[in-house]
Amino acid sequence: ERPDALPRDLTGLRVVISAGGTREPLDPVRYLTNRSSGKQGYALARVAAQRGAQVTLVSTVTGGPLSDPAGVEVVPASTAEQLRAAVLTAAEQADVVVMAAAVADFRPAEFVDHKIKKTEGSEPQPLELRRNPDILVELVKGRRPGQLVVGFAAETGDPGGDVLDHARAKLARKGCDLLVVNAVGDGKAFEVEHNQGWLLTADGAEAPIPQGSKARFASTVWDAILRLSSSDRL
Ligand code: CTP
Ligand code: CA
Q1: Which of 105, 179, 189, 228 has the fewest Cβ atoms nearer than 10 Å?
Q2: Which ligand is nearest to the CA of 58?
Q3: Non-local CB neighbours of 199 within 8 Å, separated by 6+ positions
Q4: pTM
Q5: How far does the centroid of ligand 1 lie from the alpha carbon of residue 3, in Å?
Q6: Ligand 1 centroid distance, CA of 102 (Å)
Q7: Closest residue by Cα to residue 199 from 179, 184, 216, 219
Q8: How many CB atoms lie within 10 A of CB 38?
Q9: What is the DSSP letter of 123?
Q10: CA angle 172, 174, 179 (to 5 degrees)
């Protein structure tokens, strides 16, 4: 996607995007995380800036292989708690908030301030976990008039339902305006260059996102956000 090929149709829009998996520390040398690379969130930020938006990217993967997108304010965060604080602060000034980050659902119940040692001849203690706050739900609760809140869902099918069944239930549970659904598993979505999925809106509209680059996918998401922000319809 060449920047000069994109319309500046997001000019004036203030957007916040979160990206990457959170890291939940267990001790000074260990943490729990997930397979999110942050690539889709970075592509959303890059494309939004290229289309003229004022972009804040709250990222858990600064200093990694992804370079800061041009013209984007990058705010580093690592844990779910840090991401929550940074996103909620930035959201106060935003027209659109996109939660592309893979927030760890749980964190270790306590942070041990020294390296945990294995003890000869005994099995390890079970790891006690606590729930992290649901940032997306908090954003929806605190949404200002006219502000759009966008969630992401990476789903696989299972005996309880297919990808879309799970996604529809998640949209209803979260209460966001738009849910961007990625089909995952079988090498789909995580750590790869291409994505495919669906856009689900609160009014029940559903549109497929064809297989394509993460930049192309990002542009499709911004097209939908633009339509929603101007007409409230997908
Ligand atoms: N999310 C969040 N805070 C959390 C967990 C998730 O803000 N503690 C956001 C994610 O950034 C994403 C959306 O909620 O935009 C959906 O995340 P997902 O993990 O798919 O939803 P969960 O409610 O955690 O459901 P699941 O049990 O399927 O993981
Ligand atoms: Ca989750």
Answers
A1: 105
A2: 1
A3: 178, 179, 180, 181, 205, 206, 207, 208, 209, 220, 221, 224, 234
A4: 0.94
A5: 31
A6: 7
A7: 179
A8: 23
A9: P
A10: 80
Say whether 34 is catalytic: yes
Nearest residue to 22 via CA among 149, 117, 135: 135
Quick one: which ligand is closest to 154's CA?
1
Q: Which atom of ligand 1 is nearest to the CA of 105?
A: 8
Neighbours of 1 (CB within 10 A): 14
Scan for tokens 């390890």, then name that residue. 124
Q: Quote the ligand 2 centre to 6 CA distance (angstroms).
A: 33
Task: For residue range 86-115, list pLDDT tens digits in order.
Answer: 999 999 999 999 999 999 999 999 999 999
Q: What is the rounded CA–CA span in Å between residue 3 and residue 105?
A: 36
Among 40, 16, 223, 14, CA closest to 139:
16
First to last CA, the chain: 23
| The token pair that represents 101 in the structure block | 């980050």
